[in-house]
Design a protein that fits this description.
Blueprint (H helix, E strand, L loop, with lengths): L24 H13 L4 H10 L3 H16 L1 H11 L7 H15 L5 H14 L6 H13 L1 H9 L6 H10 L4 H7 L7 E4 L6 H10 L4 E13 L5 E13 L16 E3 L7 H18 L11 E7 L5 H12 L20 E8 L2 H13 L4 H6 L4 E7 L17 E7 L14 H4 L2 H18 L3 E11 L8 H10 L3 E3 L10 E2 L4 E2 L12 E7 L3
Parallel strand pairs: 5-6, 5-8, 6-7, 8-9
Antiparallel strand pairs: 1-3, 1-4, 2-3, 9-13, 10-13, 11-12, 12-13
Helix pairs in contact: 1-2, 1-3, 1-5, 2-3, 3-5, 4-5, 4-8, 5-6, 5-7, 6-7, 12-13
Length: 524
């Protein structure tokens, strides 16, 4: 069943790529919201907005913009119920919604919210609508608690997305749709090469920044060299801040002591790394392996790697893993095969995003130069390439290249709406189908490049089953040499699916919506 989204009914919005940042704070927020409705992302317009303001106005502007986006669709429905006739001008609708947020969610004084919003309409040259704007806002100001309850009663999502979530997550639907309109907590991943999580928590405490230690346990059955399932568990620790904090206030952040990364995103690198180490162990014990093969070298791939958080995490784990013996004495060589070199390839198809990878690795002291200075035999190669067509082997005859692949797949990002509330405006129903096709193209290109016994970890930040478990089910029908690794009940995160596990962004204490599926190539 096709659902119609609640979108402003107007074709009069002038399209422009230039975001004009002048006028009052409210005017600048309105113009930013118009730019988002014109197709620009929040990440591209937020900094220009904040950088155009005095420090004393930045907090209010940020709260006004983000809260308006989070409540956008609920406000649109409320506005429709308040107006005697349809309001077709997007500029007018947006201005009223900014006024409603001040009255209902930000507790701005009535006279200030109404007067300044009316003045903002004049500044953006919609003075003809000031009477309408004033009347609607005054009506709401008389009984804000009534209208707040009305606004909060249902979801704040486009109807097509709410309908799909109802189909996918009927039991969690109410909790999920309410959770998506809340702010997400701030999590930190501690660089284990610099500090332990516990020590960094103490450093935060010394800086008067309160944080809770969060520990996620993952359990899954990996296949051993004897083709028997080996129960495996691992622990992933992170920190959840009580309040979001500017990164320049975090102890030793500039020196790479920690990274801002959602707790559920922190699962990716440990999962694929543990699977990779299982392959290394299996290869070492397999006496039938061709002696001419590259047994002492690992080649791993991070596909769709930008902005580089999961790549950095994996490099940290590789650098510190004591089971990877880069150097051994000669007399031990016959009995202890060594990993002489690890080749890490990371690809992304956008040059600006590649630059973000380099910036993040530089702060964390994980560039190729840093790795060489630390005497780590890790060769890092970052490539701007299309994952649907890129071949890691180049022109070489053998196409079996990688021991492990981390595929942080493109998706509709519906699982991170709390952090990027513009997604509920920018995404369409058609995007889901197109994205699922793109995911399938990437999978079909990368899977043949994985070595026998190798692992591919499929990750998305989506909460739509078409992009997740249904994508995996469809993939497995095409490849009889692919086996889904079973997650066990030892996992204290996510919801078990037919394949993989799904995390939902349900409460303001937990992580974002992520899906994980671990696949192993079992035969050629």
């Amino acid at each position: 069943m096709r659902q119609t989204s609640t979108a402003p009914r107007n074709n009069k919005l002038k399209r422009s790529s230039n975001l004009i940042m002048n006028g009052s704070v409210r005017v600048r927020v309105i113009r930013t919201l118009l730019a988002i409705q014109n197709g620009q992302s929040l990440s591209s317009v937020l900094d220009p907005l904040l950088n155009s303001l005095h420090d004393g106005d930045k907090g209010f502007a940020h709260a006004l913009l983000l809260t308006t986006l989070r409540q956008w669709h609920a406000l649109a429905r409320l506005l429709d119920s308040l107006a005697d006739n349809p309001i077709d001008e997007i500029e007018v609708r947006t201005t009223i919604q900014v006024g409603l947020v001040q009255l209902l969610y930000l507790e701005v004084a009535d006279h200030a919210a109404i007067h300044e919003t009316v003045e903002a309409a004049k500044e953006i040259e919609f003075a003809h609508a000031t009477g309408l704007i004033n009347a609607i806002l005054r009506k709401v100001a008389k009984n804000p608690s009534k209208f707040r309850k009305k606004c909060d009663k249902k979801h704040s999502l486009p109807n097509w997305l709410a309908y799909q979530l109802k189909q996918d997550w009927s039991e969690q639907y109410d909790e999920l749709t309410q959770g998506l309109r809340q702010a997400a907590p701030m999590f930190l991943r501690v660089n284990s090469g610099v500090s332990s999580v516990e020590d960094y928590q103490q450093a935060l405490d010394g800086a008067e920044i309160e944080a809770d230690l969060v520990e996620l346990t993952s359990g899954f059955n990996l296949m051993s060299s004897s083709d028997t399932a080996t129960p495996t568990t691992l622990s992933t620790k992170g920190l959840r801040l009580h309040q979001s904090t500017a990164v320049n206030a975090l102890p030793h952040f500039a020196e790479g002591a920690a990274s801002v990364q959602d707790m559920h995103a922190q699962l990716a690198a440990p999962l694929i790394h543990t699977a990779l180490m299982n392959k290394v162990s299996a290869d070492k014990s397999n006496t039938d392996i061709d002696s001419d093969a590259d047994n002492n070298q690992l080649h791993i791939l991070d596909a769709c790697a930008a902005p580089g958080g999961k790549l950095a995490h994996w490099l940290e784990l590789l650098s510190l893993d004591e089971s990877l013996s880069f150097h051994v004495k000669q007399e031990d060589a016959e009995t202890s095969p060594v990993i002489n070199n690890i080749k890490v390839t990371a690809i992304d198809n956008e040059a600006p995003r590649i630059e973000r990878i380099y910036e993040n690795l530089q702060r964390l002291n994980l560039t190729q130069q840093d790795l060489e200075q630390a005497e780590k035999n890790i060769a890092l190669n970052i490539v701007c390439a299309d994952a649907t067509t890129w071949q890691g082997a180049g022109k070489k005859k053998s196409k079996l290249v990688f021991d492990a692949i981390l595929l942080d797949s493109p998706c509709t990002a519906t699982g991170v709406i709390r952090r990027h509330p513009d997604i509920s405006i920018l995404r369409t129903e058609e995007d889901v189908e197109q994205t699922a096709l793109l995911q399938a193209d990437i999978l079909h290109n990368l899977w043949p490049q994985l070595k026998v016994g190798g692992y591919l970890l499929y990750v998305t930040c989506s909460i739509l089953k078409q992009e997740n478990v249904e994508q995996m089910q469809e993939f497995l029908t095409h490849y009889n040499n692919a086996t889904a690794i079973e997650f066990t009940e030892d996992c204290n995160w996510g919801i078990a699916q037919a394949i993989g596990r799904q995390c939902l962004p349900i409460d303001n204490m937990g992580g974002d919506g992520f899906y994980y599926a671990l696949l192993q190539k079992t035969a050629q």
